[in-house]
C-alpha cells in the first residue's frame, strides 16, 4: 500500500473545465475553438489563482491577527521559473488540469510551454530566493518575498556564427502575464536626491528632489500541501509626472516625457552581473527603491490605519533577511523612517533596526562585496549618508570599548577615510543586524576566519551557518516525474516531498539489483527525453547511449569551465595523435550551459572556445562519435529542469575556497547524477553525506591553495610538466579551434600561462587522473547506478525546507502559523 499525502484537489475536472471556458470567454475573449495554447495557459493560470484566493486571504489575515512573526525576504533577484505547473502541483490540481485541458483539445505540455519564464535573476542567488519562498509557504510560515519586477530579466543569450555570445533583451512582459496582480492602490512614494535641513527643534528634514511611485505587483506563493499562500511582492517603478507640460507645449515631445522615462528606468533592467558589483548609480537607485517601498509596505500591513503605530514592536511582527549586500541600504532607511518619520530617538531606532535585520553573505570573492562611494550615496540619499556616518561613529566607539587594537578598529570602519571615502555594505550589514550567515559549512568558516575575521573576533555569536537547499517540488517532482514515482514506490509513501530526509529509506534498496535496474531505466528514459528536447529546441543530435556529462552554471573563471574544456581537448589530442585508440574511448556527451556577464572578456572568450571545440570535435570523423560537445544557449530554469534529470555526471570543479555553496550540485545529486568535484562549498557536505566512495573527489584543498599562493604560483611550470596539458593548450594556440587563426584565443592562453588566478593548470593533472576512475565505474552500469542511487538516498538534507528550518531555529526565531 502506498501512502498518498499529496494535497487533494479543491476542484473536479468538470469544474476546472468550466472555469477555463469562462476565463477564455470573459478574460481572453476567445471561444475554445479559437483559443491557442497561450490563451489556455492564461485562462488556466487565472483559474488556479481563483482557487488560491481564499487561502491567500486567510494566510494574510492569520498573519496580521496572530502573534507569529513573519519573514520578509529582501532580494534583488527572484529567479522563479515557470509558475503554472508548480502552482498546480502545490495546490493539488495537476490531474484535473491535465484532464480539463485535454478535454478542450489541447496537449497539457503545450499549454505549460506557452508560459514565458520570468528570468528575474542571474543565477544561484536568485534561484535560492525562489526555493526559499516555496519552502516558507510549504512550511506554513508567513512570509513576503520583496524584490523588483524588472521589465527586462537576465539577457537572452544567443551565439553568433563564430560561437561568440550575443546578448538580446529579455522582454518577458511582451505577452500577457496572468500571475502578477498590479495593485495600484497600495503604492509607495520613494524619494531621491535633494538636501537635508536642520529644523528649529534640531531635528532633520530631508527635502528630496525627485520621487518615483513604487507599485507592487503581487504573486501568490502557494505552499505545497500546507494550505498556505504567501506573497511575492515585486515593485515596479512608475512616474508621478506623465510628462512636463511646459516642454510638451514647446513641441519638444521627447524631452517632455523625460521625467517619466527616468522614473521608469529604475525597474527596467536586471543587472546581469553575478558575483561582481557594478558601481552604477542606477543600481543603488534600484536597491533603495525596492527596500524603501518594502519597509513602508510592512508598516502599512502590520499597523493598518494607525497614524502613530508603536514601532518598538516591529521586530516582533517581521524579520528582514538581507539576501546579500544588495538590500543593505534598508538599515539606514529603517533608521531614517523611525527617527524622521515617526520621531523615535536614535537609541530606540537602533535597537529596533538591529533586531529587525539579518544578513546572508553569498560569496568569498572580496571584489564581490559591494562598496559604494560616499559621494554617490550623498547625492542620491543625503540623509542616509548622514545616518551611515553616525552609525560608523557609534560603531567605532563601541569597538573601542571592546578592543585596544587600533589597527583592527581601523580595518573595521564602515566608512573608510581619505579623499574618496567608501561605504562597505557588508560591514554595515554586519554591524546593523543580529546575525550573519554563510551558505555552506566551509563558506561560513571562511567568512569567520578570513572575510569578516575582525568582526567574528569581536562578535563571535553573530555568526552562524545555514547550508543552502533546493525545493524538491520543482527540482524532483516536476523536473523528474519518473524518478518521483520510483521514489514513492520504493518508500511506500509520497511523504518525502515534504520531508526529504525520508529518502534515506532508499538506502537498503541500493542492494536490490532489481530496484537499481529500475533506477537505471529512469535515467535512460530521461536521457532519451532530453535528446528529443535538444533536437526540438536546438537541433542537436544527442546519443542517449553515451554518458551525459554536464556543466551548467554562470561562466566565471573561479568555476573553471576552462579546466573542463582543457581536459576535453587533451582527450581529443590523444585521439588525434594516436596516443589512445579511439575504439577504447568511453563515449561521452559533454553538455555546457552558461551565461557570461556582458563585460567579462575572458568569460566570453571561454564561451567562444567551447563552441568552437564543439564544432571541431563533433565533426571530426577520427573521433567516431566518442566525444560530443554541446552548448545549448540561454541556460535557464526550464533547461535546468530538463537537463538535470538526464545527467549521469555533474561537474563541480571550482577552485577550493571560491564557490560559497553551489545549489546545482544538490539538484544533480538528488536526481541521481554522480559528481566530480573539489572540496569546495557544499560539495564538502554532499560528499560527507553520500559517502566518499560515492563521490569523485580531486584537486587541491583550501589550505593547499593558500600555500601555493604563498609560495608563488607559476602556471607555466604545470604546462611544462604535464605533456597532455601542454598539448591541449598548444592546440588552443595553434588555431585548431579558430580556423587556423593563432590570435583568436591568445589573451586566454596568455592568462592561463602567466596568471591563472584560480589555478586551473595546477589541478589539471588530478582532474584528468580521476577520469579513469569515472570511466571504469561507468563501464559497470549496475555499480554506477547503485552509487547514483545512494546519492539520492543520502541527499535529503539538501532540501530548502531544511535550510528554512535552520533559519527559523537559528536566526528568525519564528515558525508556522497556528
Ligand atoms: C553569489 F555573490 C554571489 C552573487 O552575486 N550571485 C550568486 O549567485 C551564488 N552567488 C554563489 O556563487 C553560490 O555558490 C551559492 O550557492 C548561491 O549564490 C546561493 O547562495
Automatic annotation (TrEMBL):
Keywords: Carbohydrate metabolism, Glycosyltransferase, Pyridoxal phosphate, Transferase. It comes from the Bacteria. Its cofactor is pyridoxal 5'-phosphate. It is an enzyme of class 2 (transferase). Transmembrane segments: none annotated. Allosteric enzyme that catalyzes the rate-limiting step in glycogen catabolism, the phosphorolytic cleavage of glycogen to produce glucose-1-phosphate, and plays a central role in maintaining cellular and organismal glucose homeostasis. Phosphorylase is an important allosteric enzyme in carbohydrate metabolism. Enzymes from different sources differ in their regulatory mechanisms and in their natural substrates. However, all known phosphorylases share catalytic and structural properties. PANTHER family: GLYCOGEN PHOSPHORYLASE, GLYCOGEN PHOSPHORYLASE, LIVER FORM. This is Alpha-1,4 glucan phosphorylase. It comes from Bifidobacterium amazonense.
Amino acid at each position: 500500500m502506498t501512502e498518498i499525502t499529496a494535497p487533494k484537489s479543491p476542484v473536479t475536472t468538470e469544474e476546472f473545465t468550466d472555469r477555463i471556458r469562462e476565463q477564455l470567454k470573459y478574460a481572453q475573449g476567445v471561444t475554445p475553438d479559437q483559443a491557442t495554447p497561450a490563451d489556455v495557459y492564461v485562462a488556466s493560470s487565472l483559474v488556479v489563482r481563483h482557487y488560491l484566493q481564499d487561502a491567500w486571504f486567510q494566510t494574510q489575515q492569520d498573519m496580521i491577527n496572530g502573534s507569529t512573526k513573519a519573514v520578509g525576504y529582501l532580494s534583488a533577484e527572484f529567479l522563479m521559473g515557470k509558475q503554472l505547473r508548480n502552482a498546480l502541483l502545490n495546490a493539488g490540481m495537476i490531474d484535473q488540469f491535465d484532464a480539463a485541458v485535454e478535454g478542450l483539445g489541447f496537449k497539457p505540455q503545450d499549454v505549460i510551454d506557452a508560459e514565458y519564464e520570468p528570468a528575474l535573476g542571474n543565477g544561484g542567488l536568485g534561484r535560492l530566493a525562489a526555493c526559499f519562498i516555496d519552502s516558507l509557504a510549504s512550511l506554513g510560515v508567513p512570509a513576503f518575498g520583496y524584490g523588483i519586477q524588472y521589465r527586462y530579466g537576465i539577457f537572452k543569450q544567443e551565439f553568433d556564427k563564430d560561437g561568440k555570445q550575443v546578448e538580446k533583451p529579455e522582454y518577458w512582459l511582451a505577452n500577457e502575464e496572468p500571475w502578477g496582480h498590479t495593485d495600484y492602490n497600495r503604492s509607495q512614494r520613494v524619494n531621491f536626491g535633494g538636501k537635508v535641513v536642520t529644523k528649529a527643534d534640531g531635528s532633520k528634514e530631508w527635502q528630496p528632489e525627485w520621487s518615483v511611485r513604487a507599485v507592487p505587483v503581487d504573486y501568490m506563493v502557494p505552499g505545497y500541501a500546507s494550505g498556505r499562500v504567501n506573497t511575492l511582492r515585486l515593485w515596479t517603478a512608475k512616474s508621478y509626472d506623465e510628462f512636463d507640460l511646459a516642454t510638451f507645449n514647446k513641441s519638444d515631445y521627447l524631452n517632455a516625457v523625460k521625467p517619466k522615462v527616468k522614473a521608469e528606468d529604475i525597474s527596467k533592467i536586471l543587472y546581469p552581473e553575478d558575483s561582481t558589483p557594478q558601481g552604477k548609480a542606477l543600481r543603488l537607485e534600484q536597491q533603495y527603491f525596492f527596500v524603501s517601498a518594502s519597509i513602508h509596505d510592512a508598516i502599512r500591513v502590520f499597523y493598518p490605519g494607525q497614524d502613530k503605530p508603536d514601532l518598538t514592536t516591529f521586530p516582533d511582527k517581521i524579520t528582514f533577511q538581507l539576501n546579500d549586500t544588495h538590500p543593505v541600504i534598508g538599515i539606514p532607511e529603517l533608521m531614517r523612517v523611525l527617527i524622521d518619520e515617526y520621531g523615535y530617538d536614535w537609541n530606540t531606532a537602533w535597537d529596533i533596526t538591529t533586531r529587525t535585520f539579518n544578513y546572508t553573505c553569498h560569496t568569498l570573492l572580496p571584489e564581490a562585496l559591494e562598496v559604494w562611494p560616499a559621494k554617490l550615496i550623498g547625492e542620491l540619499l543625503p540623509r542616509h549618508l548622514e545616518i551611515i556616518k553616525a552609525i560608523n561613529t557609534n560603531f567605532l566607539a563601541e569597538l573601542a570599548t571592546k578592543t585596544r587594537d587600533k589597527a583592527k578598529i581601523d580595518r573595521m570602519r564602515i566608512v573608510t577615510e581619505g579623499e574618496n571615502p567608501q561605504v562597505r555594505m557588508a560591514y554595515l550589514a554586519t554591524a546593523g543586524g543580529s546575525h550573519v550567515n554563510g551558505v555552506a559549512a566551509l563558506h561560513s568558516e571562511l567568512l569567520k576566519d578570513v572575510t569578516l575575521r575582525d568582526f567574528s573576533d569581536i562578535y563571535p555569536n553573530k555568526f552562524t551557518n545555514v547550508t543552502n537547499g533546493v525545493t524538491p517540488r520543482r527540482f524532483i517532482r516536476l523536473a523528474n516525474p519518473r524518478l518521483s514515482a520510483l521514489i514513492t514506490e520504493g518508500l511506500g509513501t509520497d511523504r518525502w516531498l515534504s520531508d526529504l530526509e525520508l529518502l534515506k529509506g532508499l538506502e537498503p534498496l541500493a542492494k536490490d539489483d532489481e530496484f537499481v535496474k529500475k533506477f537505471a531505466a529512469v535515467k535512460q528514459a530521461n536521457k532519451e527525453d532530453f535528446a528529443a528536447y535538444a533536437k526540438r529546441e536546438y537541433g542537436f543530435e544527442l546519443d542517449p547511449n553515451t554518458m551525459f556529462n554536464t556543466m551548467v552554471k554562470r561562466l566565471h573563471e573561479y568555476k573553471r569551465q576552462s579546466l573542463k574544456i582543457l581536459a576535453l581537448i587533451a582527450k581529443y589530442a590523444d585521439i588525434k595523435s594516436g596516443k589512445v585508440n579511439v575504439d577504447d574511448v568511453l563515449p561521452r556527451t559533454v553538455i555546457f550551459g552558461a551565461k557570461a556577464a556582458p563585460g567579462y572578456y575572458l568569460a566570453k572568450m571561454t564561451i567562444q572556445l567551447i563552441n568552437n571545440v564543439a564544432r571541431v570535435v563533433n565533426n571530426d570523423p577520427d573521433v567516431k562519435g566518442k566525444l560530443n560537445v554541446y552548448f545549448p544557449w540561454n541556460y535557464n530554469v526550464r533547461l535546468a529542469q530538463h537537463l538535470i534529470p538526464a545527467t549521469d555526471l555533474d561537474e563541480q570543479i571550482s577552485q577550493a575556497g571560491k564557490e560559497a555553496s553551489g545549489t546545482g550540485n544538490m539538484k544533480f545529486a538528488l536526481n541521481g547524477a554522480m559528481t566530480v568535484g573539489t572540496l569546495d562549498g557544499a560539495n564538502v557536505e554532499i560528499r560527507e553525506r553520500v559517502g566518499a566512495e560515492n563521490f569523485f573527489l580531486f584537486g587541491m584543498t583550501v589550505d593547499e591553495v593558500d600555500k601555493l599562493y604563498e609560495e608563488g604560483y607559476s602556471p607555466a611550470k604545470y604546462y611544462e610538466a604535464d605533456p597532455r596539458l601542454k598539448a591541449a593548450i598548444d592546440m588552443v594556440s595553434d588555431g585548431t579551434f579558430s580556423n587556423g587563426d593563432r590570435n583568436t584565443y591568445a589573451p586566454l592562453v596568455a592568462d592561463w600561462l602567466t596568471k591563472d588566478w584560480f589555478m586551473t593548470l595546477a589541478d589539471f593533472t588530478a582532474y584528468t587522473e580521476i577520469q579513469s576512475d569515472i570511466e571504469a565505474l561507468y563501464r559497470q552500469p549496475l555499480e554506477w547506478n547503485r552509487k547514483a542511487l545512494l546519492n539520492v538516498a543520502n541527499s535529503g538534507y539538501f532540501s530548502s525546507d531544511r535550510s528554512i528550518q535552520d533559519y527559523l531555529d537559528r536566526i528568525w526565531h519564528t515558525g508556522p502559523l497556528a
